[in-house]
Amino acid sequence: MKPPKTTNSGNQKLVKVATCLYRSVAYNIYYGIYKRAGKQVKRSLKTTDKELAKRRLEQLREKVARLNTKRGSNILFDDLAKRWLEGTSSALKESTRQFRAGAIARLSRFFKGITIRSITKSQTEQWAAQRSKQVGARAFNIERETLIQVLNYAVREGLILDNPATVIPRRKQPRAQIVIPSKDQFRVMIAQMQADSRSAEAANFCEFLAYSGCRLGEATAAIWGDVNFDLRNFTVTGGEKGTKNHEARTVPLFPPLERLLLTMREAMPSPPSPTVRMFPIQSSKTAIGTACKKTGLPHFTHHSLRHFFCSNAIEAGADFKVIAGWLGHKDGGILVAKTYGHLRDEHSTMMAQRMTFDLAKPDTEPVNVVDVTSLFRAS
Fold first, then answer.
1. Do 56 and 39 touch, CB atoms closer than 8 A?
2. Cα(311)–Cα(363) distance, rounded to whole angstroms?
3. Structural domain 77-167, CATH architecture
4. Which of 2, 17, 153, 245 has its CA 20 to 30 A from that of 331?
5. Minimal CA–CA distance to 25: which of 48, 45, 42?
6. Tens digit of each residue's pLDDT (9 = 90 or more) over 38-90
7. What is the rounded end-to-end Cα distance, in angstroms, of the chain?
8. In what order do the strands lie in the sheet with 233-236?
9. In whole angstroms, what is the distance from residue 175 CA to residue 124 CA?
10. Correct CATH for 6-66 of 3.40.50.300, 3.40.710.10, 3.30.160.390, 3.40.50.261
11. Furthest-apart CA pair in the chain: how many Å?
12. Of 36, 35, 9, residue with least CA distance to 23
């Protein structure tokens, strides 16, 4: 009886247990080793179970068989990344495409001149260690995700077997502090804008953001034809660029928003055409900054007004799922609950202080028993 065939891999001794299947003597882990097109293929099958190892060996052979060795040997990271971006651009918003293009440009500085096939796990870990010292968590995560998507594309195209960048952990991003204007602060800011003739249009624009919950791009794209005063609703389309999730939404014409739009329309010399934009400006950033500085308010932004809308909706008793629909979220209210849940808790605590209908004698007048009974019936 012949002794089992053995081979050495680094410091490990491997014993052949079946065709192309080897087991580590020291760790009992199985490896697949065979030749394809004159080159050795060796991979850990990451299991100590022989039957599972056999199945994974077959999967490995299928993956290797799909490799396009001629096509993939000379493709550089820069070239493949650009090709991937071109292929996905049609499904991306312009802002997202620009994010990805910027990430690719920065990744290409590190992987410049390196072929896709020669990128290893250790190289991607080197990139991560170096890049994490240079940028914040958000920028790092965008570049990491872009790198993984480019290399996933290489796997699908049969250029590489596995994605070497999946070993890079995502960095934890600190939760940004949400700055929400109070009702009084909002009134002061708008009043300051209205007092400056140069900021009158910006004041209307800020009120629209605060009363509609729209994102900046959605508000600048709004046209008068989006509003239906008869049905008391308006449609958020996002214009040519579309909304963030590429879907238009129809929401109620909230009372303060209806009053604002009616006032704006009445101030116009003639009824506006349905295709006319509601606001001729693209931003009120400067006007907001000036108003906040003059009045001593915190530094608010366009997005602060979207937060203002949400906080008021919560105080009005709207549930998270309804608010999510108004905002254009597709998660049924999960993000709203995560972002604004503390506001609901604060509002609930404040409302609880009004529940003073017990029989104890207050400092002023005693509670009338009849009144208490009516309170219970009303509830």
1. no
2. 34
3. Orthogonal Bundle (1.10)
4. 153
5. 48
6. 778 788 888 999 899 899 888 888 777 776 655 556 889 999 999 999 988 77
7. 89
8. 227-228, 233-236, 249-252
9. 27
10. 3.30.160.390
11. 105
12. 9
The residue-averaged pLDDT of 316-328 equals: 91
DSSP 231-276: TTEEEE--TTT--TTS--EEEE--HHHHHHHHHHHHTSSSPPPTTS
Q: For domain 183-334, is the CATH number 1.10.10.60? A: no
Query: How confident is the model over 133-162, as a mean pLDDT?
Result: 92
Q: CA–CA separation, 326 vs 251, rounded Å? A: 6
Helices (H), 280-357: 285-295, 302-315, 320-327, 334-352
Identify the bridge partners of residue 35 per DSSP, sorted by sequence position. Answer: 40
Asked if residue 296 has pLDDT above 90, the reply is yes
Of 67, 154, 145, 66, nearest to 102 (Cα)? Answer: 145
User: For 178-207, what is the mean pLDDT?
Assistant: 93
Contacts of 374 (CB under 8 A, 6+ apart): none
